[in-house]
Design brief:
With 620 residues, the protein is α/β, with parallel strands linked by helices. It contains 15 helices and 18 strands. It has helices at residues 8-11, 13-34, 36-58, 61-80, 84-99, 113-126, 177-191, 283-294, 327-353, 360-363, 392-397, 419-424, 436-443, 487-496, 613-619; strands spanning 150-155, 161-167, 197-202, 207-212, 231-236, 246-250, 253-257, 259-263, 273-277, 299-304, 320-324, 366-371, 403-410, 427-431, 459-464, 470-473, 599-600, 609-610. It has an 8-stranded mixed beta sheet, sandwiched between helices. A 4-stranded antiparallel beta sheet has the order 1-2-4-3, covered by helices on one side. Strand 17 (599-600) and strand 18 (609-610) form a beta hairpin. The longest helix is centred in the middle third of the chain and has 27 residues, at 327-353. It starts with 7 loop residues before the first helix and ends with a helix.
């Protein structure tokens, strides 16, 4: 059956709505222009009426009578004078038009004296970079007019430049990063330090647009983001840099903020992440934020090389496989992660060859989060393998096996990371203050903004693959067990933590009722040729057999029998206390025990020894 086409209102609805809005806006502007005199006169009449009412209320009561008589006399005279009413209406309309005019002071045309001096100084500073001796008509000359090279200027309340368009000659080498860096540093110094500037180079038009960026919001706490499985919010950036916004909750307010979304999974081109920063820059906060988002749809394995307890809140939570801080535990965890990746690859290969869907345990994402793995560098000196070498398999084949690796390291230990980490972590994040050389070495490209020496925690830059370098602000996700954490942020993080599984010891077990004891008189008599029934030791410890009567033993006393020493290889027999007897009444002696064959359980099952029932029956 052929598919019916969608209704026209559904296929072209957005275009028609946009066109209708544009027509409505144009009609409103035209009506405003046409009705502008009427709007002005109406506003003037309202102001005159307000002034008259105010004058009437301010007049004392004893003078209101003469004032009213004076007004009535003027109205009478105007009515009796030829063309008086017409002249009165014309006068009233003129007064209303005068009082209803727009009294907003016009914006000053051009900069004032201080702004002109600042622009002239900036123009003179650009002369050595934008001038050449061979140029017959240079655009920048000493003592020249700054209006030839600078335009589109805007100033903030403090008198510093907030927006500027700089024209430069065509022979300037705007394609060289070194030449661009010199101009950007100069404009930053002359326009005012301590702010972040965005530089937009237009090579075709030979123009450079400089604009001051507003600070990113730092009050966004950790919360549930509206994302699909496989999407992780690293932080937030400037409006207009990404074609998407997320609705966020800030107290009682709701606002839309543009996010930096990192996509992982089988079809991701950046399956692993590397975060670098200075101490206190917020790399642990970023890893903690990623862990809280990953626990919604997958399992998390955390290795903390710093051993500072930053992830103690995640210990024992559902979905958290382990939180390792020591060298031995980290090495064991990474070995397990490598084996788990290999197992998933084998299971996926078998499922594809058999034409079946992948197993459920291979489709659940596994996140390996490493915070400061360079601190584990002393492990190979003890004769053990390098922990970072165990990451080669998850890094190379993690995308196919639904395994994602996140590494957070400081600049001081960045050289300790292996080549596999640098080659396969295509998503990069730099947090905290950093130089242009450090940003270029980690991100692979310089940012379009000027880094500042003082930034709040969690502020930095992010680059996903070969995409643009974006400013980043990580959502506030502090350690809830830290005393310096505010109550609002602590409650926000604790509300996102998954619950802990119930303790097995705390859950009361369902005890089966004891079987009814059959009296001895009710047991059948043995038949000739058949062995007599043997009392088998019950499996439950709470089933206590009655003591056998031994000749020469007083009533109520436990018989004393000789017992040999039991070898280590033999199976220990449980000591069952008899009801109504105590250790003070009668001592215990050794009972002869024979060796019983033991069946070893293969690896993978519970590590216990199984004793055949026949051997236990014979022992009894």
């Amino acid at each position: 059956m052929a598919r019916r086409p969608l209704p026209r209102i559904l296929s072209t609805g957005s275009t028609q709505i946009a066109r209708s809005r544009e027509l409505a806006r144009t009609a409103a502007d035209s009506a405003t222009d046409v009705l502008h005199p009427l709007i002005t006169i109406t506003r003037g009449l309202r102001r005159l009426a307000s002034a008259g009412r105010r004058r009437w209320t301010e007049t004392p009561k004893d003078k209101r009578g003469p004032l009213l008589f004076l007004v009535a006399s003027v109205v009478l005279v105007v009515a009796l004078v030829p063309y008086g009413p017409l002249l009165a209406v014309i006068t009233l309309m003129a007064a209303a038009a005068w009082h209803g005019r727009d009294r907003t002071p016009p914006a000053p045309e051009g900069p004032d004296e201080s702004q002109t001096e600042r622009l002239q100084a900036l123009y003179e500073a650009l002369v050595p970079y934008f001038s050449a001796a061979e140029d017959p008509a240079p655009l920048y000359t000493h003592g020249g007019d700054w209006e030839k090279g600078l335009s589109g200027f805007e100033f903030d309340d403090s008198g510093r430049i907030s927006h500027l368009v700089v024209r430069y000659p065509a022979y300037f080498t705007d394609g060289e990063p070194a030449a661009r860096t010199r101009i950007e540093q100069l404009l930053t110094a002359k326009s005012g330090r301590g702010r972040e500037y965005h530089f937009l180079w237009d090579e075709e038009g030979n123009q450079l647009t400089v604009s001051v960026l507003a600070p990113l919001p730092t009050d966004i706490a950790a919360q549930r983001f509206v994302t699909s499985p496989g999407e992780t919010v690293l932080g937030f950036t400037d409006p207009g840099e990404v074609p998407r916004t997320l609705p966020l909750t800030h107290g009682e307010e709701r606002r839309d903020v543009p996010p930096v979304v990192w996509r992982t999974g089988i079809r991701s081109t950046e399956p692993h992440l590397l975060a670098v920063g200075q101490p206190g820059s917020g790399t642990s906060t970023l890893v903690r934020s990623i862990a809280l988002q990953a626990l919604q749809h997958g399992d998390v394995l955390i290795v903390e090389g710093g051993s500072t307890g930053e992830y103690a809140c995640l210990t024992g939570r559902e979905g958290v496989l382990a939180v390792e801080c020591g060298a031995s535990g980290a090495l064991a965890a990474l070995e397990w992660a490598a084996h788990e990746t290999e197992r998933r690859l084998i299971e996926l290969n078998r499922a594809r060859q058999a034409g079946q869907p992948p197993p459920e345990d291979t489709r659940r994402p596994l996140w390996i989060l490493l915070d400061r793995p360079g601190a584990l560098g002393h492990v190979p000196a003890e004769g053990r393998p390098d922990p970072l070498s165990l990451l080669q398999l998850p890094l190379r084949h993690g995308r196919a096996a639904q395994v994602t690796v996140v590494v957070a390291e400081q600049f001081d230990h960045l050289d300790l990371l292996g080549d596999a980490v640098r080659q396969h972590t295509r998503a990069r994040v730099v947090l905290g203050p950093a130089t242009a050389e450090q940003l270029r070495s980690v991100l692979g490209a310089p940012p379009h903004t000027t880094p500042v020496p003082q930034v709040p925690p969690g502020r930095g830059y992010a680059r996903l693959g070969t995409g643009p370098v974006l400013r980043l602000q990580v959502p506030a996700t502090p350690d809830p067990y830290d005393d310096a954490t505010s109550d609002a942020h602590r409650q926000a993080v604790l509300g996102l933590l998954p619950p802990r599984p119930q303790d097995e010891d705390a859950v009361p077990e369902q005890v089966d009722p004891l079987p009814e004891q059959v009296p001895v008189e009710a047991l059948p008599e043995p038949v000739d040729g058949q062995p007599e029934p043997v009392d088998v030791l019950p499996e439950r410890a709470d089933v206590r057999p009655e003591p056998a009567a031994v000749p020469g033993t007083p009533a109520g006393k436990i018989p004393v029998l000789p017992v040999e020493k039991v070898p280590v290889e033999s199976v220990p027999v449980a000591m069952v206390s008899l009801a109504g007897a105590s250790a003070d009444d009668a001592p215990f002696e050794k009972v002869p025990v024979t060796k019983v064959p033991v069946e070893k359980v293969p690896i993978g099952e519970a590590a216990v020894n199984k004793v055949p029932t026949e051997a236990m029956a014979a022992e009894s």
